[in-house]
Amino acid sequence: MPGAQRVPPSEEVPWLRARVAELEADNEVMAAQLAARDAQLEAVQARLAVLAEQIEELRRRLGKDSSTSSKPPSAESPYKKPKARSLRTRSGRKPGKQPGAPSSTLRQSPDPDDTLTCGPAACVSCGADLADAPVTQCRSGRCSRRRLRRRRG
Fold first, then answer.
1. How far is CA 142 from CA 123, 125, 139, 151, in A?
2. Pick from 23, 135, 139: which is nearest to 148 by CA?
3. Suppose 128 and one of 12, 64, 117, 123 were both cysteines; which one would form an S-S bond, judging by CB atoms 3.0 to 4.6 Å apart?
4. Could you give the CA distance from residue 112 to residue 108 in angstroms, rounded to a whole number?
């Protein structure tokens, strides 16, 4: 019969019981060892977390210099290379006007006797219209046209 349990002969039963007891004892020993390893692993993980915090603190302190803390520049190591101040790089162009750019010189006028008067359209102080006011003078940023307008009106 395929589904029936096999009954061991009478001499195998004591040996099997002894083997089961031996395996159960081994199982208990391994469970105790596993618990001890779990405790060791937790202790190592806790120590690792403390060391990671210390490393982070030391990196933060190492990154401080006179530009990022209240530490004076004289307290820095003379052998340490200074950091680059600017990340900008040179463009490779020479200073001044570049070839091909339009010039900005003032061209001569064909009729030098023409006079062009460019006065302000409004008073800087009060905003009054100065289109028809005569230009008399300008002193220290205050327009005299405003004074003339006030006298008239």
1. 8, 7, 6, 16
2. 135
3. 123
4. 8
Our separate counts of H helices and E strands in the chain read 2, 2
Q: CA torsion sign, 131 to 136 to 137 to 141?
A: negative
Tokens found for residue 90 = 């040179």
Instruction: Name the residue with higher pLDDT: 85 or 151.
Output: 85
What residues have CB less than 8 Å from 1, skipping those under 6 apart? none
| Domain boundaries defined on the chain | 12-67, 120-153
- Residue type at 148? L
Cα 115 to chain center, whole Å? 57
Burial (CB < 10 A; 0-12, 13-18, 19+), residue 143, is buried
Q: CA 120 to CA 131: how far, in whole Å? A: 8
